Amino acid sequence: MKIKLAKSAGFCFGVNRAIDIALKSAKSGEKVYMLGDIVHNEDVVKLIERSGIKKTRKLETGFGKALLIRAHGTSLKTLSKAKKLGYDIIDATCPMVKDIHKIARKLEESGYKMIVIGDKLHDEVLGIIGQLKSKALVIDTHYNLPLARIKKIKKAAIVVQSTQNIENVLRIVAQLKKIIPKLKFCNTICRPTRIKQEEVKILPRENDAIVIIGSKTSANTKRLYEISRAINPKTYWVNSKNELNPRWFKGLNSAGVTAGASTPKSAIVDVVRYLGLLA
Fold first, then answer.
1. Residues with catalytic annotation?
2. Which sequence spans correspond to the domains of the chain?
């Protein structure tokens, strides 16, 4: 069985950067805290915890402490509260996510009602809407659009969660254009996501089976799985080699492998080695 590993599999620039910043901050001697997980991957979370960084649910007195802002970013309200409480801020927000923040704020200042296409409860989306003075409309699917709210909007601008599927986004935009008289669309899906999604549209056509590696909590990994499975039903989503089933590959000639942006290299290597043994 031939094994094809996607060139873009694994960490993107933003995740790599956030982990590097986190590990360096852990060695600074300062007490470092984080609201939630740095990225959506259990192995990476364990690595960060072992480095000494503490995860907290609530900000308390921050003097002598630092708050690490995760790759997904955070709201202006949280940032302001942390500073007032005395925390030093270590910002590991992905630069591409910060660009979305800037775009959203500028568009709102220009008088646009802001619409965010993304997963409603995802940390990145909460960070984006948390940049704005007024309440943004968040849309996650072209099904069941909140038409009553949309019909009241005369002028709006759209930004997109960086890891969204462009096909889903364009369906939503097409529907909104029919309703909102003045609509500006900013495609803020990041370049690493676009590359990963383009690759995962090719792999399922060229291989008998596809393995997607990544945490079930990872939105970008979920998107890769959905795209691949729509093309090739023999698409399997695993977090590690331990979840692979040899029966999936019996009698097959090839398997394609890719991984989400928060999946560590070690998990990818383990899966590829395991599949190599099946060959």
1. 124
2. 2-10+192-278, 13-93, 96-185
